[in-house]
Amino acid sequence: MLLRWSAKRRDAEPTLPTLRPDDDASRAAFERDVLHRSVHGDESLVRKLAGIFRQRDRDAAAALARWVADGDLMRARDKAHDLKGGAGAVGALSTALAAEALQRTLDGDGVNVQQRVAALQHALSAALEAIDAFLSDPGPPL
After folding, report:
1. Domain ranges of the chain
2. Are 28 and 94 contacting, i.e. CB atoms less than 8 angstroms apart?
3. pLDDT band at 115, cuts 50/70/90?
4. DSSP designation for 23
5. How would you classify residue 53: left for phi > 0, otherwise alpha for psi between -120 and 50, otherwise beta?
6. pTM of the predicted model over 0.90
7. Alpha-carbon distance 32 to 93, whole Å?
8. How far, in Å, CA of 130 to CA of 52, rounded?
9. Hey, what CATH class is 32-136 in?
10. Is 120 a residue whose pLDDT tops 90?
11. Mean pLDDT, to the nearest integer, of 89-114?
12. CB 107 within 8 A of CB 77
């Protein structure tokens, strides 16, 4: 009974969108529209939440690499899980996908952990760069 319930739960979890090779890299790095829709168009809240993500997770990839190197895989897995949720919520889709892949790897799917960490570092760097550019643009006058 428990196995059937947990299998159904796992299948019911929302999945992140699949990025296609023709997706614009900057668009995949930070999809402002994702965040904009989730806060019902409140532009000041979009900026605030993007800034919080930038501040909170700026050093996440370096911390993950350090924890993996030190063998603290549970801590790395937990941070990858948190980063997946935070990145997905703000529209940093490629980061969310890379964090999800790292989380799966740390859960034991056998793929090279270092390769996944490097992919996450690259995705997060692109997302932070796109968020920095977004936040430095004052936008249209109110």
Report:
1. 32-136
2. yes
3. very high
4. S
5. alpha
6. no
7. 10
8. 14
9. mainly alpha
10. yes
11. 89
12. yes
